[in-house]
Amino acid sequence: MPWYAQSPSPHTRTEPGTHKLTLNSQLHLMTNHATYRQHLGLVSQRSFNAYPVGGAEMGWKNGDLVVHFAGCWVQKKCQEQWQDFWNRRVLA
Question: How many CB atoms lie within 10 A of CB 42?
């Protein structure tokens, strides 16, 4: 059984066939179980889920991996935002 499936606490158990852990379960594992922490890396939210606009903590900057167009459909700006960021891409 892989290390992440070895549930050391009833707080972290999930239903058979699911791979979901609640935020509370993840927090419990991070704070109480060294084995979990040894396989865990923390990065800024912006590193994997930046937004088109939104301050230093959440707004996309050059070098960020992904931009998330959350709620773009509300103001019907999905295509506009997509095109804007498509034009900014840098090919490696």
Answer: 7
Tokens of 38: 């040894």
Tens digit of each residue's pLDDT (9 = 90 or more) over 12-30: 455 554 445 566 787 888 8
| φ/ψ (deg, to 5) at 35 | -60, -40
Q: Give pTM, 2 decimals.
A: 0.52
Do 17 and 33 fall within a single domain? yes
| Residue 4 structure tokens | 């992440």
Domain count, the chain: 2
Tell me: do 28 and 50 sit in the same domain: no
Full domain range(s) for residue 84? 45-88
Residues 6+ apart with CB under 8 A from 87: none
